[in-house]
Amino acid sequence: MANFNCPYNPTVDYFAILGVHQLACPKTVKLAYRKLARRYHPDVSKIHDAQKKFQQIAEAYEILSKYRDAYLHDFQRRNRAVNGNSRTSKSQSTNTHQSKRSRSTSERDDKEKKSTQGTHSFYEKAYRKQKPIDGKDRVITYPLTLRYAIRLLRLGSFYIPGLKVKMKFTREALMGKTFRLQGKGYSGLFGGKPGDFLVRFEVKNESINWQLKGADIYGTFHVASQLLTEGKLIKLEAPSGSFSVEVPSDYAAGHFILVENMGLPSDDSLQAGHLYARLIAA
Length: 282
What we know:
By secondary structure, the protein is α+β, with helices and mostly antiparallel strands. Helix content is 39%, strand content 22%. A four-stranded mixed sheet has the order 6-7-11-10, with no helix packed on it. It has a three-stranded mixed sheet with strand order 1-5-4. A hairpin with a 4-residue loop joins strand 2 and strand 3. The longest helix is centred in the middle third of the chain and has 62 residues, at 68-129.
């Protein structure tokens, strides 16, 4: 409400009319008034509402020149009261909005929960009606070199990386046997049993120089001709390891020399095989 002792309206921002800050000095206020007065004077301005604007500018300058302190006090006090009421109203509006949003969220969550329960119930019934389907077997063949196969026979086990399982490794692995690990295959559906994991091994000879016959290894060794003399001890390397062989007196090219227990290693039920070495002059 206006102060009846002074001819100003505290609801009007006279500083804004002149385009100056509330802390502007009287000189700045005066310069702003003169600049605007020249622009909006009815005698020179062609703006359609120049006269009205000029009257507002003149009134603002008069109030700020004569009643600045009283006006500023009433103007700021009114703004504080208006802003306080606005914040209270805004807070109440915000709380009301949040309350509505909370109820809306709660109702939506209840609907989603009921929908989820209904969907779950539907699929659960469908699941019960579906006949169990057993999982399929998984078959894999591991290629092995003869050297590595002999090493596994000595260890007695083979580690399957994909399953993280260690299985027993015997001579049967080199004879084409398929090992079955129950329940380690593909999973079943609708309560069906899982399939099995079938493992086979395929021995790859390291070169054409080696041939596996049962538990025995037949190999061809190329050695320097000067070493092929009677009684000469020659050191050689086979898939089963290093060994030494003595050139026999009746040695002839193409004959095999028996080296006992240098074939496949023994296991629980089978004896070790032998190595038959054939020496060829290089």
